[in-house]
Amino acid sequence: MTDQPATLFNISTGSPDPIYRQLIEQVRRLVAAGMLAPGDTLPSVRDVAQALAVNPMTVSKAYNLLEMEGVLERIRGQGMQVARRRSRGKGEREALLRPSLERAAREGRELDLDDAAILELFKQVLKEVP
After folding, report:
1. CB-facing half-sphere around the CA of 40: CA atoms within 13 A
2. Confidence of residue 2 (pLDDT cuts 50, 70, 90)
3. Closest Cα to residue 9, out of 40, 34, 43?
């Protein structure tokens, strides 16, 4: 992987999600979107921790959990790589998107927007995003 850890990952310190969970979700999304392909090497734990100013154990925990899930595999002498396995199906990709949509729906309800307004706004956003 040629991307630097600072551009590959983005941590939100104000998020209720722990940092290791944010890293896990980002790796899952990058793999599902094909931005990380099977065999791509991830930045080292030390590089990610330094770039994001987080504890190396946090990054290590995320990588280890992703390895247990089969998303990543440890290659001796090379570090963590995206596992060489089948690509994710549509259902798996939709499952990755669902938590974001649930948060957006919850926020829409909290702002007292009706379903039609929320859907219309989402359609506008879809048109604007490349």
Report:
1. 16
2. very low
3. 43
Nearest to 48 by CA among 71, 75, 69, 27: 27
DSSP string, 44-100: PHHHHHHHHT--HHHHHHHHHHHHHHTSEEEETTTEEEE---PPPPHHHHHHHHHHH
Read off the pLDDT of each residue in 43-55 and give the average, rounded to a whole number: 94
pLDDT above 60 for 86: no
Query: Where is pLDDT greater, at 6 or 47?
Result: 47
Q: Which two tokens stand for residue 39?
A: 């065999």
pTM of the model: 0.66
Q: Cα separation of 29 and 102, whole Å?
A: 16
Distance of CA 29 to the CA centre of its chain: 4
